[in-house]
Design a protein that fits this description.
The protein is mostly helical. The chain starts with 6 loop residues before the first helix and ends with a helix. Strands 1-2 form a two-stranded antiparallel sheet. It has two domains: 60 residues, Arc Repressor Mutant, subunit A; 37 residues. A hairpin with a 2-residue loop joins strand 1 and strand 2. 63% of the residues lie in helices and 10% in strands.
Length: 124
């Protein structure tokens, strides 16, 4: 499933993933920005029209919740980024991420561990 989120849509999805089902007012209150209620509602409706969230009625309000998993959205975003900027090469993307960042020894060890696990899976 290809998932395309604008920056603002991603902000709202993060809130739903972190806090679970939420009303428009709750989402608005948790945002760092001072967006109008109607703006938040419009973004939530857009996300719902894309099939990324759904809602349940709760009195006069609606409680919105994510129907796609965060990891699925991350994978989709990485695939799109890889295709767009790295010619679909996972190796180029990973090389760029590792060489362009100041990673701690613990982070480097974790990456090495993940690569070793992947190598072992490939052998079996």
């Amino acid at each position: 499933m290809k998932i395309a989120l604008t920056d603002r849509e991603a902000d709202l999805m993060d809130l739903l993933w972190e806090h679970g089902p939420s009303t428009v007012a709750e989402v608005r209150d948790r945002l760092g920005d001072d967006l109008a209620y109607t703006t938040v509602l419009t973004i939530l409706r857009t996300l719902e029209s894309k099939g990324y969230i759904q809602h349940d009625p709760e009195g006069r309000a609606h409680r919105y919740y994510a129907v796609i998993e965060r990891d699925v959205a991350r994978q989709s975003a990485l695939n799109a980024l890889s295709k767009k900027l790295f010619k679909g090469s996972t190796e180029l993307l990973l090389t760029h991420l590792v060489s362009d960042r100041k990673l701690s020894n613990a982070q480097l060890a974790r990456i090495k561990e993940l690569l070793e696990q992947r190598t072992k899976k490939e052998r079996t």
